[in-house]
Amino acid sequence: MAYKKINFDVFKLSAYNSVDDIIGFETVLLNVLSSYRPIHKNTGPISLSDAVKQHGKFIVGTLAHTQMNDLPNYRNTQTGETGQLPLNDEQGLDYNTSFLFDKELQMLALESKKNGVSLQLFCNFFQHNYDLNKLETEIVIDPIEMQKLQRMSVVKKFKVKIAKVANGEIFSDGGKRQSFGQIIDSADGTNTDTLEYVLTASRLKSDSLNVNKIKQFIRELLIFRDTEEVTKLELTGKEDEDAASYPINFIGSRVRFQIEVERKRFSESFALQEKYSLLKESYNKIRPNLLKAYKYKAP
Q: Pfam families from the xrefs (predicted)?
């Protein structure tokens, strides 16, 4: 019996209603509509594949990307014959992307899948179907690394590498974030689309960068991690001046987990329920540490 591994990435969600008040995203998911309007990407529509369901403290569901363009040919493995798949103009290849939402932590575990539904498309779908002003997302960092950051009182080195300087969201939004001013000014007029920014304290044991300022940098830059604009975000420091220094790599410390499901020739409805069960089981294993570091306080 063959199995395949499915990856899930964890994100923090902040939902804002039409008057820009923050709301719990569960109020959106559980407000079931009689029908959902699909959104469209170049290769086909994104739609709700399986009804959103509440499972205790979790909400699960599945979106589908139906590929209508650039369809592959079939191949007969015995004869080598190839040809077009027998699909009419209303049919395509169905790529399901499942998710779990944690109501208490306001966190989303989203299946990572080639040809599936990306985080941006997930947000676009629910904004399109509900009266939401915006959905903000942050990649969730390993709680152990976040605890290290909180304990750090001496910062010796801070490094960030930003792509898409010319057309990225960080710099278009950076004017609203005072802490980005120095970074923006350093790239102004240079005609670059990649910026690597490094701050280093002196070699004296007691010297440190401004800890509060660096932590503010990190919190605001982490908001943009899911845009793939922040390609490097590293910090080196220590708990006090007499302790040993240690590095934190925020790009490599994202929370991700896997489930294993049986590999089948064709997807079946009961297999989706099995995936939900495995998804809840695997998420529950990492949830206690998430609760310690990211306990959500309702607005």
A: DUF6731 (PF20505)
Tally of domains within the chain = 2
Distances (CA, A) of 34 to 23, 31, 48, 51, 129: 22, 10, 12, 11, 11
SS3 category, 6: strand
pLDDT tens track for 179-203: 555 665 666 666 666 778 888 988 7
CA distance 14 to 127: 12
HSE at residue 73, side-chain half, CA atoms within 13 A, is 8
Count of H helices and E strands in the chain?
7, 15
* 39-41 and 44-55 strand pairing: antiparallel
b/e for 36-56, b at 16 or more Cβ within 10 A?
Answer: bebbeeebbebbbbbebeeee
Q: Are residues 171 and 154 in the same domain?
A: yes
Determine the average pLDDT of the residues in 145-154. Answer: 86
Task: Determine what percent of the chain falls in helix, strand and coil, rounding each to the nearest 5.
Answer: 30, 35, 35
User: If you write DSSP's letter for every residue of 233-284 in order, what string do you get?
Assistant: EEEEEESSTTSPPEEEESGGGB-EEEEEEE--SS--HHHHHHHHHHHHHHHH
Same domain, 147 and 66: no
Distance CA 56, CA 51 (A): 16
| Same structural domain, 181 and 208 | yes
Question: What percent of the chain has a predicted confidence (pLDDT) above 70?
Answer: 85
Instruction: Evaluate whether residue 299 is within a structural domain.
Output: no
Query: How confident is the model at residue 66, as a pLDDT?
Result: 95
Contact of 201 with 233, CB cutoff 8 Å: no
Domain that holds residue 128: 3-140+255-294
